[in-house]
Amino acid sequence: MQIKENIFFSFWLNLLEKSKTELQNIFSLFEKYAINEVLAIGSHSKTVLAASIARQKNIFFQTWKMMLINNDKQILREHKDWFTINRDGKSTADFPPYVNYYRWLCPNHPQVLPFLKNMVSQYCKIPELSGFHLDYIRFADVILPPKCQRQYNLTQSTEEAQSDFCYCPHCTSSFENEYGYDILSIKDPTQDENWRSFRWQSISSLVNQLVDLVHSYDKKISAAVFPTPDIARNLVRQDWTSWNIDAFYPMMYNAFYDQDIKWLAQAVNECRQKTDKPIHAGIFLPSLSPAQLHNAIELLLELDINGISFFNFNAADSEKLKVIKSFK
Ligand SMILES: [Zn+2]
Predict the structure, then answer these.
(1) pLDDT in tens, 25-63
(2) 263 CA distance to ligand 1 centroid (A)?
(3) CA of 327 to the centre of ligand 1 (A)
(4) How far is the CA of 220 from the centre of ligand 1 (A)?
(5) Helix, strand, or coil (residue 13)
(6) What CATH number was assigned to the domain covering residues 8-325?
(7) CA 242 to centroid of ligand 1, rounded, Å
(8) For the chain, which residues make up each domain, given as ranges?
């Protein structure tokens, strides 16, 4: 088949505890396998090192950062009020839902944006950095994907109080100032359209301010988002098509939604109906056999996308790397 020349292949990569030699070997492998881009998570010093190796290999390098999920002990100790609060009045700082690391910062707390901007600036000052890649830029899942519900032995058909965020004083008072009523006085806040869109806007406004900051450093900004605009809004209050970022990496992890590979086409089409911006389809490597991976890439290359991003390098055994290479 004819492969589009300009399709980017990317890997999400964890830099944690990797030595300089290991990183050089990994980036040499990426060069050999014609990988165009790396989205890499790691400390500032590891990022400086990896970004300079990537530059030598002519690989586009974005730093990948967890934004609103936060388990930093110092932040938890000193700024407990920064964390989201559910409809039962419980903070994710003390009562993380689902898993013990689900502690989330509130996008409407006035100190959260400056905190994030400071972190973003530190990384954007790295000269070899090409872009900043946002992850966990949303509220905690009010509804989990079907596979995760089974994993945690849950059945979620409505937005339940313990996973519905955020009812902190900053969110509720900002909402009241904007819409003229107290959301806590409403019998069923889950049915309130204004409250729904207020929370979409809370995330979008935060993102769009980070966009301006990243662009001021002449870097690109992108984000890992939920797989379709509807799923993103309904499960995690992420209205990503209203974000001014440069490229979207929807995590089209079909197995999480009990879908087969054909669903990727539907997901891409749903994204395309809502945005003209670059779409890099995110593929979850652990749930695909080499043959399924081949079929997924073949299908995606026929669609209106700009790249395919593989999660993540740890799950890329030699068989799967060979499949990826066969398309380049
Ligand atoms: Zn809040």
Answers:
(1) 999 999 999 899 999 999 999 999 999 999 999 999 999
(2) 34
(3) 45
(4) 28
(5) strand
(6) 3.20.20.80
(7) 20
(8) 8-325
User: Per this entry, what is the length of the chain?
Assistant: 328
Residue 207: alpha-carbon gap to chain centroid: 12
Q: Residue holding tokens 């966990």?
A: 136
| Ligand 1 centroid from CA 248, angstroms | 25
Please give the distance, rounded to the nearest whole angstrom, from the Cα atom of residue 168 to the centre of ligand 1.
4
Among residues of the chain, what percentage have pLDDT more than 90? Answer: 97
Amino acid at 298: E
Residue 200 CA, distance from chain mean position: 15
Q: What's the predicted TM-score (pTM) here?
A: 0.97
Tell me the C-alpha distance between 114 and 259, whole Å.
39
Pairing of strands 37-41, 60-66: parallel
What is the SS3 assignment for 28-85?
Answer: HHHHHCCCCEEEEECCHHHHHHHHHHHHHCCCEEEEEEECCECCCHHHHHHCHHHECE
- Euclidean distance between CA atoms 300 and 141, whole angstroms: 27
Report CA dihedral (192, 193, 196, 200) to the nearest 10 degrees: -160
The token pair at 11 is 């890997």
